[in-house]
Design a protein that fits this description.
Oligomer: single chain
Shape: globular
Radius of gyration: 15 Å
Strand content: 35-45%
CATH class: Alpha Beta
Distance between the termini: 25 Å
Length: 99
Amino acid sequence: MTANIMHFNILQQPVVTEKSYAATGAGNQYTFRVSREATKSQVKAAIEAVFEVEVVKVQVINLPAKPKRRGAHSGSRSGYRKAVVRLAEGHTLEAAEEV
């Protein structure tokens, strides 16, 4: 399957944290920020098209907005949607590991 613009609109950026980096080595899982409207099947199709790998499982998490304050000014940091993607045995994403 070839990647088109829709696949790149679904995947926004990889999530690079200590927890996601540990899951990469231990469980062959990669974490991405995805579009709020993206479904599991759309995320799976986008990963398989863009990176040319086989996806076994996709878990999607909606993270809520966080209230933030700076002195007397209050606001909130926007929430986002995150997808944890498990790849088949023997497949890796070099692009996500380099970030």
